[in-house]
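Protocol step 4 of 6.
Sequence for UspA (Fulvivirga imtechensis AK7) entered exactly as in the expression construct, tag removed. Do not edit the line below.
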Amino acid sequence: MKKILVPTDFSDQASYALEVAYHIAKRAQSQLILLHVVEDTNVASMHYTGEIDMPHMEDRLFMMKLIEKGKKDLADLSSNSQYADIIVEQQLRIGSPYHNIRDIIQEHDVDLVVMGTKGSSGLEEFLIGSNAEKVVRHAKCPVLTIHKKAESFDFKDIVYATALEDEEEQCVNIVKSFQSLYGSTLHLLRVNTPNNFQSDKTARPELEAFAKRCNLQNYKIHIYNEGSEEEGIIYFAESVNADLIAMATHGRTGLAHLLTGSIAEDVVNHTKRPVLTYVIGKNK
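Step 5 output, structure tokens:
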């Protein structure tokens, strides 16, 4: 884990994410990349080079003020003495936060994105979504979402919710790297729902076989019954006081996403615990 990207809008949620990212970077001896995006609906993603091409002087002046403020805030954050023991790189971009995050991941070969999110619910969740949701759905690297100020920076208990798919092994390797870094106990979880139920007699051997195939160490197997996968993952994580929830996602888009939704995105939206996600099937 060499490079960790932390997008920031200087909000409380972003500061919570930076705090977690710093402690991961310190432990893993990683570099932090701090990204601030000055939003402009006219462009998707653009480096700041000092020239702003806008037809109206008022718009140009307003954008320049936003850029100068962003530069100052980014410089102040990067030079904070708290982060003196790690390498911190600054990136200021213009356009869409999501598109710029995507570009930075590719350009800098980012290993992990750590970002804050408020979560969402109801109509807002259905109509708008958030930048965090888009990144979770499409990122080419693992994404760790942070919802609140961390009470601890040790991920001692990790819940890994599995559907036992072969492609999940990509995600499991990432979870194992966190487990190795923190000496964690891994809770391998299957959630039974009314529409997708397996008896312990059937499910437990399948979970054991999955663990063996993935060469898991220091793990426990759990089967939890709940009305939905999302609720089962969240409630089980609460029951073991998990420090981290980890799960794979298919990153569905378009009509498929509208019809089926995403369990990973639902969990990101509705839990207060850190969630580590990885898109499988698109990252080969």
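Step 6, annotate. The domain at 157-279 is CATH 3.40.50.620 (Rossmann fold).
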